[in-house]
Structures are given as C-alpha cells and as structure tokens.
Amino acid sequence: MKSKYIIGGIIIILFTIWAAVSFKSNLTPYVSIADAKKGQSIVQVKGERVDSGNYDVQKNVFMFKLRDDKGDVMQVIYGGAKPGNFEQANHVVCIGKYYNGSFHAESILVKCPSKYQKEGTQV
Predict the structure, then answer these.
(1) How far apart, in whole angstroms, are the C-alpha atoms of residue 20 and residue 101?
(2) What is the pLDDT along the chain (123 residues), one digit of tens a residue?
(3) Domains held by the chain: number
(4) Residue 99 lies in a domain
(5) Does any domain span residue 1?
(6) Torsion sign across C-alpha atoms 113, 74, 94, 27
(7) How far is Cα 10 from Cα 2, in angstroms, rounded to an integer?
(8) Rounded to whole angstroms, how far apart are CA atoms 115 and 26?
(9) Domain that includes residue 86, residue range
C-alpha cells in the first residue's frame, strides 16, 4: 500500500516540474530596442509608433518604425495586414525577434488610447 503512495507522489512531483518548465519557456519578456537587437530569442518590445507604416499588398507585409522610451528607433516588419486601429494607437507592443537589421514581428498588439481617457475628451 505504501508503494502506491510513493508512485503517486513521484508522478505528482514530476508533473509539477514539467508544468513549471513548460510555463517558464512560454514567458516572453519585455525588453528595450537595444536589448532586442542583442538577443536571439522571441521578445516583446513596447514603443511609440513613429510613422503610419507602409503595407505591401503583393507581399502581404506591413512595415513601420517603433521608438521605445529610451529614444531608440527600429524598423518593424510584420507578415500580415495592418491592424485596423493602428492609426489611432499611440503605443504598440510587438512580439517577435530581431534579425537581418529589423525586428520581425509575429504579432502586433495595439494599445488603444480611447479606453483610458475620461469621458468627454477628444481622441
């Protein structure tokens, strides 16, 4: 009877270790543009959009420039359509990795300013 408890305890411990390792590998840290240029892993970069971007219909590629809090600017290339509310956004979060002289985003999260303004103020 004790062997059942020991085997059950070992299975629970192994499952807990596996879950912790899996969770840690799925975390995507926020980094600055300078740190994104150094690393080879997938990261999140938050910044202010510098321009309204350029969408290439034939290649289905959206490109724009992003500036972080430190003033560094980088080119972002996203393999997809321009987000619908990109023009109204002040800040953007890009998830991807930096290589070949630009940040290749897997996804773009647009921070909409209208959600955080008081009622009655203009956007």
Answers:
(1) 34
(2) 688 888 888 999 999 888 877 776 667 778 888 888 887 788 999 999 888 888 888 889 999 999 988 989 999 999 888 888 888 888 899 999 998 889 999 999 887 765 555 555 555
(3) 1
(4) yes
(5) no
(6) negative
(7) 12
(8) 28
(9) 29-116
CA distance 31 to 53: 22
Q: How far is CA 106 from CA 43, 69, 77, 123, in A?
A: 10, 22, 9, 28
Residues in the chain: 123
Which CATH number goes with the domain that contains 99?
2.40.50.140
Please list the alpha-helical segments (H only) found in the chain: 2-25, 33-38
- Predicted TM-score (pTM) of the model is 0.70
